[in-house]
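User: I'm writing a tutorial on reading structure tokens. Could you give me a worked example: one chain, its sequence, then its tokens, then a sentence or two explaining what the tokens reveal?
Assistant: Sure. Here is the example chain.
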Amino acid sequence: MATKKFQLEPLTCPSCIKKIETKLSKMDGVDEAKVMFNSSKVKTTFNEELVTADELKDTIEKLGYQVIA
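And here are its predicted structure tokens:
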């Protein structure tokens, strides 16, 4: 298992948390997706054999959020 944190543009609403966590958690290979609202970070734990960090980043961006780091 790998762990990756993504820094997002500041999140503006609590519903953003649910949207991101739900979408990432449903992806094959993702064990955990946790959004920290105050710091606008997403921490993911995933199986690199099933999903890549780039795929996770792309999924977040397709939801309309900008990953800045």
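What the tokens reveal: The chain has one domain: 2-62. Residues 14-25 form the longest helix (12 residues).
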